[in-house]
Specification:
189 residues, eight-stranded mixed sheet, globular, Oxoglu/Fe-dep_dioxygenase_dom, dioxygenase activity, Alkylated DNA repair protein
């Protein structure tokens, strides 16, 4: 399997086959209860431009922009995918934030995954299902940037130092009309 990487992330194209991604995309869309969180930015409240679900071990929660999110316990149907990503990444993830990008109008702004509830010594595994979308990195140290085109079945493994040295985003893409599901497997304290 071809891997594109630097010291702070590794990219694995087509980690999951097209047949498997179709299966997982359908089962996730059918079985999760999606929400559209409201976040507080500079004293104003905004609905995030995507839908989310949060799965994890019992008692896992995290705070983001003034709201506390509680994990829905792992459903049994999810374990084959969870175990596959855990084995591949050699990391015992205990939570998974799932974002549903309904089309190219849904997006994620510049950020680092540095919530205090996350274990900063563990990687984050980001699995893409569905539409191809651009994913950008911007250095916090210098002016460098990188772009990865994330496709159906691709895995992006962000190593711990990635969150300290880079911000990342998924910008709007008006021409994208297909659904994209992004699963970010994380280790919570």
């Amino acid at each position: 399997m071809k891997s594109l990487s630097n010291t702070e992330w590794s990219y694995f194209p087509a980690l999951i086959s097209h047949n498997q991604t179709g299966y997982w995309k359908n089962i996730i869309l059918e079985n999760l209860e999606w929400t559209q969180p409201v976040v507080k930015v500079y004293s104003k409240r905004y609905s995030v431009p995507r839908l989310t679900a949060f799965l994890g071990s019992k008692g896992i929660s995290y705070k983001y922009s003034g709201a506390i999110h509680y994990a829905e316990d792992w459903p049994k149907w999810f374990f084959p995918l969870l175990d596959y990503i855990r084995d591949f990444s050699r990391t015992n993830y205990n939570g998974c934030l799932i974002n549903l990008y309904r089309d190219g109008n849904d997006c994620m702004g510049w950020h680092s995954d540095n919530e205090k509830e996350l274990d900063p010594k563990k990687s984050i595994a980001s699995l893409s299902l569905g539409a191809t979308r651009d994913f950008f990195f911007r250095s916090l140290i210098d002016s460098s940037s990188n772009n990865i085109e994330l496709r159906d079945g691709d895995l992006l493994l962000m190593h711990p130092e990635c969150q300290f040295n880079w911000k990342h985003c998924l910008p709007k893409r008006k021409k994208v009309s297909e659904v994209r599901i992004n699963l970010t497997f994380r280790c919570y304290r």
